[in-house]
Amino acid sequence: MRKTTSGQESVDGVVVVDAPEARVRQSSDALGMAVTAAAIALVLVLSVYAHATTRGVLTDALSITRVLNSILQAAVYVLNNLATMVMPVIVLISLVARRQPRLVLDGAIAAAGGLVVAWGAAQGLGHLTTTAIARGLSVGQSGELTITVPMLAVLQAALLTAVGPRSRRPVLALSWNLLWAALATNALTGRATLPMVVVTVLLGRLVGQAVRYLFGVSTNRASGRALVEGIRRAGIDPVRVVRVRDISTPENPTIRLDVSSLRNPDNATPPDPAPHSHAADPTALALERVAGNRVYAVYDAAGTRLDAIVLDQDRQVVGMLQQTWRALRLRGMDRRSVVSLRQAAERAALLAYAAAAAGVRTPHMAGIGEAEDSMILLQRHPAGLRTLGDMHAAEISDASLAAVWEQLAKAHEAGLAHRAITSDSVLFGPHPDEAGHAVWLIGWHDGDIASSDLARRLDVTQMLAVLALAVGADRAVASAATVLERDTLTSVAPLLQPVALPAMTRTAAKSRGDVLPAVRQALLDLLPEAAESEPFRLVRLGWRTVALVTISAIVLLVVITRLDFAGIVDAVRGADPWWMTMAFALSLTTYVGAAMAMKGFAPITLPMGDTLLTQVAASFVALAAPAGMGPAALNLRLLQRKRVATSLAVASVAIVQLTLFATTVLLLVVVSAVTGDSRVFHQFSSTGVLIGAGVVVVLCLVLAVPKVRGKVWRRFGPTFAQAWPRLVWVLGQPKKLALGLGGNLLQAVGYVAAFWASLQAFGVSSLSPMQIALIYFLGNAAGSAVPTPGGLGAVEFAMTTGLAGAGLGTALAASIAVLFRALTYWARVPLGWLAWRWLQSRDLL
After folding, report:
1. Phi/psi at 141 (nearest 5 deg)?
2. pLDDT digits 0-9 by tens, 281-296
3. Percentage of the chain surpassing pLDDT 90?
4. Which helix (H) or strand (E) is 176 found in, with range?
């Protein structure tokens, strides 16, 4: 192998034009960091509950090894020093001998980082964790419990992780084995706890993975000689291999060959003086963008051009994660069992063969090869094609559009689904027999065999979107109607959502916000019956749900580790059952108040029974929705099922929420005036007042920025514009206004009364009505501010803090808060589920 110019090599007479090798940031390292951090948190939590068990195991082990410890003390000392001091030096020397200075530098940086992290962990674990966690990590020294972090072990784990997997070199495997043996010895001899042993290794791996990701690692992708050998294993003897790259961008400059410096085998076609510009034709560039992998133009001795798609192991993790996330997030995206690079390549080849066998015009597979950490797919190169995105609308005839749908229909008839149709997936070339274009469909690697009906409908949705972007919505829909059945097009209308489109198409449609609405309108003009179909919920799991679950887990963890559950249980056992029953009964009156408010502000006359059951069902929905969102969503759904326009329904629900807030403030003022008790307002310290004033000032300053103010108005302006006419209309209807305000008042009073009854259950009568109301409303506000289901955790914490500030003990305050939430939140969930099932059976939700 001989290099001639930057990125150009001669390998056994084969000209290879490729980008120079560079260090890459592997997504697997980023994923490893996240998994390792989560594992550290899990071990810390489990150390609380496993403390007694691990102590028992270590006590038994110590009783057995106490005699051996004195005999083998020297051996243990030697093992520890060998694993944590000698082996790191040996590893670095071996890297120097192999002439890998970059790995030596990476290892040194990781070792230094491991020492810093170990020192920080030793200093911070005792202060930043709870007493229970600290106890699980501590060992007894001189009669005291001390958190001891084996700093040299963290250094060794970080260094070994940074220089590569243990399977690469025997010295790494030996180092890992000695490290685990040393740590196990430390645990058995009482120098470290079992949780601390695991945390030590995880901390080192976290540092090593961070170094690998930040500085990159040397890639083991097939290139140069390995790439040529892989192509030969696929049955092709190349004379020239040229990387396909977009030469129009600065980061991918044109690479030209010095032909005179290269050997050319006998009977081989002379290398083109500028092969890269030929390799990067529209077809090859589209293939690169669609596949998301490296693509090479491969020429054999006869001058035949093939395209080599190279799948790399380090990119397989990204693809697997993307597929898993889409399968979890979206309906119709079935999970796959593809876990290895070879399986991914075999699946892509199978789909290409199946598409060609179905009569779809797509590049034919020519072979599969393997080289190093890469799989190589070779396929015939269709020359002279142009992508849909490169063509003007006037160049695409109606016959060509119909041909697009015919190709897709052939795939669907064979049970295939593409699942990722973009403007690069559709190519046009000259038709060999007639005027017009021959249509090609490429990029089947993400497709499905024996696909579901929903997957095929998503294909139609994606094709409608890309054609609408190219030729307009009317022509796209009209062309589909010439090939597809009416039922198929009608079933597509509910799927016209941005989330159904690939990222490339979604971005293009977002820049032209009228595309999907225009397609939907064109469908309605052609198929009026499509108007009756409701949008299909494609999203099963969104980012908001993930954030909601994450925040809920954090809140529950904080609550579990901070509350004194033994004191709470003792306090609840002494609560008065009669007052507990009274608190639950008073909480049920809030259903009536919420139903009255909804009836009063609804634009139509709602049946009281349906409205009341909707409020009851909201107790069940509150298990998965933030505080206040469940009732609002169900009220909106109820109005929509009653044929109320969506904009009017949203305005009515907004009025209910706004008037409930106003009623709450009014109730506080009235209670203060009637009881003459304003002491609670003086309980706020000057610091709290200053913080509140500071928040108001910051909000005013932020809103003074035109861009921020404009963004806020765009977010909330439409809702206000819809709600204002409804508010004016309600103000002109005294009976409905009185019914709505009365319902809001009953709802607020019901919850305050239930909170008062919960206080009475524990014999607490020292708080004034004003204090009780304010503490409840503060807790309710905290629940609305924290996006956990039903304000879980936030309400309890806020109420406990408020009651403790009013003079109650922490355990008693927590008991009252927990009892109140148990009666007004958890105990009402079964009622909500029954109401939910009944309403669903009557098709009211």
Report:
1. -135, 120
2. 778 888 888 877 889 9
3. 12
4. helix 170-188
